[in-house]
UniProtKB/TrEMBL annotation:
Protein's UniProt name: Ribosomal-protein-alanine N-acetyltransferase
Cited InterPro entries: Acyl_CoA_acyltransferase (IPR016181), GNAT_dom (IPR000182), Ribosomal_N-acetyltransferase (IPR051908)
Keywords for this protein: Acyltransferase, Transferase
Organism whose genome encodes this protein: Kitasatospora kifunensis
Source organism superkingdom: Bacteria
Chain ranges of the N-acetyltransferase domain: 4-168
Amino acid sequence: MSRVIIRAPRPSDAGPYAEAVLRSTQHIKPWNPVEPDGLPDLLQRQGPGLRSYLIIDQADGGLVGKCNVSNIVMGRFCNAALGYDSYLPYAGTGRMTEGMRLVVDRCFADQVVGGLGLHRLEINVQPDNERSIALARRLGFRHEGFTPRMLFLAGAWRDHERFALTAEEWQPLEGPQ
Ligand SMILES: CC(C)(COP(=O)(O)OP(=O)(O)OC[C@H]1O[C@@H](n2cnc3c(N)ncnc32)[C@H](O)[C@@H]1OP(=O)(O)O)[C@@H](O)C(=O)NCCC(=O)NCCS
């Protein structure tokens, strides 16, 4: 049984979210913006193009991580990008990987069972971000290529390695998720 669950963020998460992000500043800062007060804005932006999930520890209810499923495009593409952070003290315990498996499963699941009905997912990672590349590979993502100057982060346009996975390559998780 998974040590974590995933669920949509809600307004009452703002306080615990801020604490988790602040606690994890040094861990997140090299790779992603650190925005402890960012949850209300994230909630406002939820819609057809963006769905966020919090990864929660089953044992103590603590916030393990967050994943944004962004740039969701349906129609003939059914594609989205995954962006994520894990939080201390759970980072590096395998819980984030477990939570991301649940997120990927939800992304590929049919809309009639509460999934997003996507066909392809991308993870874009800066070349030196070994922990994120390890996570993408643990989830089964394939390395597709290199995208120069892809995202504006920490004051510059950063190169990214592009990983992807399609629904055909995913073994759906068993049981109620
Ligand atoms: C990228 C990031 C989300 C990866 O999360 P994480 O905390 O490493 O993920 P997990 O909690 O699943 O931990 C995995 C590690 O714990 C280890 N581990 C320990 N116990 C484990 C267990 N019971 N089960 C599985 N793995 C376990 C794994 O071996 C792995 O270590 P490794 O990568 O050295 O092999 C995290 O490093 C992070 O937030 N980084 C800063 C922001 C960032 O880079 N975001 C992504 C931008 S693309």
